[in-house]
Amino acid sequence: MLTFSHVIDRDRVSVMFSAKPDERIRGMLKANGFRWSPAGGFWWRRRVSGFADFLAALEREIGPRKPDGACWNCAEQSGFFRNEGPATPVRCEACQDKVVYFRGLPSAEQERYRKLSQGTELTPVQLAWTNRPAKPHVDRFDMDFEDRCAEACGL
């Protein structure tokens, strides 16, 4: 497994790897301004600012995926943050596969998708997040409404 160490000086930073990193990691280093030093056997750059963010991204790319905490649904300890907005949930992979996304759909469709979700009951947190106040509009699968719109437009 590839490991790395780093050194931070006053005006430059350097990263040393246990073995030659693959093309993806080398591209990441080059994109962030690092240069290879054949004499020293390390990657370096002069700019120190932003290095902590780069180290975090490098650890995510190289290291194994570490859980972020307990799942909000089943409390299993292998939960990961899901980037779904301000109330970012932590879910395990099994619970993530069961989530039904119906945000912004008319209420009739929300109920239909809820029934189709293979018996999966969403938690109150998920329901609060996925249910926006419904605007008064017609179900988009209503063919009669579609025909009336076509007639009104002269189609």
Can you put this structure into words, describing what you see?
The relative contact order is 0.09. The radius of gyration is 25 Å and the shape is elongated. The chain has helices spanning 23-31, 51-62, 93-98, 107-116, 124-130, 143-153; strands spanning 4-8, 13-17, 35-37, 42-45, 80-81, 90-91. The protein is an alpha+beta fold. The strands form 2 sheets. The protein has a 4-stranded antiparallel β-sheet with strand order 1-2-4-3, with no helix packed on it. It has a two-stranded antiparallel ribbon with strand order 5-6. It has 6 helices and 6 strands.
Q: Quick check: average pLDDT?
A: 76
According to DSSP, the number of beta strands is 6
Which descriptor suits the 3D outline? elongated
Low-confidence stretches: 122-138
Oligomer: single chain
Largest beta-sheet details? 4 strands, antiparallel
Number of helical elements: 6
- Sequence of strands across the biggest β-sheet: 1-2-4-3
Which structural category do the helix and sheet elements fall into? Answer: alpha+beta
Strand and helix order:
EEHEEHEEHHHH
